[in-house]
Specification:
The complex is a heterodimer. By secondary structure, chain A is mainly beta. Chain A has strands at 3-6, 10-14, 19-21, 23-26, 32-38, 44-50, 56-58, 64-68, 73-78, 87-97, 100-105, 109-114. Classes of the chains: A mainly beta, B mainly beta.
Chain lengths: 115, 114
């Protein structure tokens, strides 16, 4: 069975400081992993994805994530936070479950940016 | 620009009065999804279509139905909305149903039930 855990429901950082949003997953097979961002009252937008190629994945808006199989983690980072990064972030795992592909969303992390 | 469009953005309906939400896409993607998202929660998959092949999630209530008359359009029908069905409804598409395909989301329709 697959699962995904976002370890922090809320993260608050100061503008210009690094961002770390944590995600751990469980999957019986080699999964694909995604990070999506959702601004208030908007749909979700893909930030980046991992699909068994390079383990360090670069995404849009300066975000990147590293797939660590030994730690079953896929944490999202950004070197310097901007006010426009304030949003909800979802880690998503997609893998095979009983011969069908299955998409599992994490519970989300709300990122707040302090001026 | 290719995109996923949802109409209306805000919908108010009365308790028990059927309502239909619509989604269209210009991406020519094979798969279309409907999600329900309640406040401060992750999106919950209701069902998806791979072409015309309908796939219902096991815990999706019978009150929710869907139609996909062609590649571009998909509809969500709520037959008898209850107060608990008030939520944001998100439509998404993907090129395929395999595990590597990312989803493209519409802006959502916020449903209020009075």
């Amino acid at each position: 069975a697959q699962s995904v855990t976002q370890l922090d429901s809320h993260v608050s950082v100061s503008e210009g400081t690094p961002v770390l949003l944590r995600c751990n997953y469980s999957s019986s097979y080699s999964p694909s992993l995604f990070w999506y961002v959702q601004h208030p009252n908007k749909g979700l937008q893909l930030l980046l994805k991992y699909t068994s190629a390079a383990t360090l994945v670069k995404g849009i808006n300066g975000f990147e994530a590293e797939f660590k199989k030994s730690e079953t983690s896929f944490h999202l980072t950004k070197p310097s936070a901007h006010m426009s990064d304030a949003a909800e972030y979802f880690c998503v795992v997609s893998g095979m479950d009983s011969s069908a592909s299955k998409i599992i969303f994490g519970s989300g992390t709300r990122l707040s940016i302090r001026p | 620009d290719a995109m996923v469009i949802q109409n209306p953005r805000y919908q108010v309906t009365q308790f028990g009065k059927p309502v239909t939400l619509s989604c269209s896409q210009t991406l020519n993607h094979n798969v279309m999804y409907w999600y329900q998202q309640k406040s401060s929660q992750a999106p919950k998959l209701l069902f998806h279509y791979y072409d015309k092949d309908f796939n219902n999630e096991a815990d999706t209530p019978d009150n929710f139905q869907s139609r996909r008359p062609n590649t571009s359009f998909c509809f969500l029908d709520i037959r008898s909305p209850g107060l608990g069905d008030a939520a944001m409804y998100l439509c998404a598409t993907s090129r395929g149903a395999g595990t590597t395909y990312e989803q493209y989301f519409g802006p959502g329709t916020r449903l209020t039930v009075t």
